[in-house]
Amino acid sequence: MVMLVLLAAAMPFRFPVWYPTSFPVIKSVSILDMMLVVGLTVLLLDLKRRRLNLGYRALALLLAVPVLVSALSLMWSDDRIATLRTTVNFLEAFVAYLFVTRELAGVAVERVVAFLRRYVWLVTLPAVFLLLHVPGFAPYEPGLSHRSGDYLSYYTRLSHPLLGRSNNLAAVLAILVPVLLHVGHSRRDRLTTLTGLVAAAAVICTFSRGVMVAFVIAGVGCVLLFRRPFGGSWKPLIGKVVVGALSLVAAPIALYVLNPTTHEYFAGRLSAANILSRAELYRAAFEKIEAQPLLGYGAGAVPKGDAVLIVDVHNTYVQQILYYGVPLGALVGMVVLSLPLFFLLRRGLHPLAGAVGFGVLVDVISFAFESSLEGTVLRVIFYLHLGMLAGLLRSPVPEQRREAPQGAAEVMS
Questions:
Q1: Which regions span the lipid bilayer (predicted)?
Q2: Whether the predicted pLDDT of 403 surpasses 50
């Protein structure tokens, strides 16, 4: 079941569905949606035999906050249909977390890492096939003209035919890179190390500036705050870091040389158009926040039908304030920011906690530059990843690391 859900999350093809005009909430259904309906059914049937497995209760409570706030905003939303749709999507994401938490309870580290490895390959290969113009892997975005700039941009850098353009793919893979590289190094697992390098190379080939800046900020922050953020000594890593760095430099150079459309992309990025468009988004967003600072406009709602903000602000934290107002928006933003801290505080209890926390920190920082958390499929995948990474830390700890410091039992609970 876990493998089927991961397969559906890697290629979440959507089907348009018919619905009554009086109930326009569900416009389409993806394979991932259908798999999670099966997962929810399994969870409900399992309640007859045992209590719901929340994994780490504190983490489950944190992830439930956005769901509850989104549902609460139905009371004042400017667009109740959009808010209801967003709330259903949040519930679906929470089901994904609960499902993988149940399925991975007591599963060995090696098995969980194998799932993560397979998922990286399942996500990366369609992106490569898209660049190679393999039939069946063209960009799938209903209503998008094949001659439009948005369509052609899929071929300028590594993008996914179903998950979307490069920033989306980078956000999906970035959270897994530190974990796979750490496991591959610490356990001398060449396949896992190779998979981690492939994921890192794919992130660089997306040319997602937000995610790459997030890696730098997260790395500097972890080094300054923790003397050894991932545990162990740095010396054995020097050789691997040099080889890995050379490989990661070679990947984007090869893409630039072999893919002529990438040249056009870089030429366009030298202009100030992107910076000006982001500045216009922020200006429009802060004007709307100033107009309704207390409660906002409701989850998923476009403020007063503003044409500038019809997509998003490209900043998760500003977007939450726009949706829920300053008090609740700041609460949801603080919950998202606290997620990496939840894992980093467990560095002394599990050898993988530092790498997991680093990966989550990269995604959380990138949310300040991108709108990944606002994507309906990407939101579900983010919760799915958190459930799998939490399951990784709940796996049996090796004998040499089982002695926890005083008070560790309270932290683990």
A1: 26-47, 54-76, 119-138, 167-185, 197-225, 237-258, 321-345
A2: no
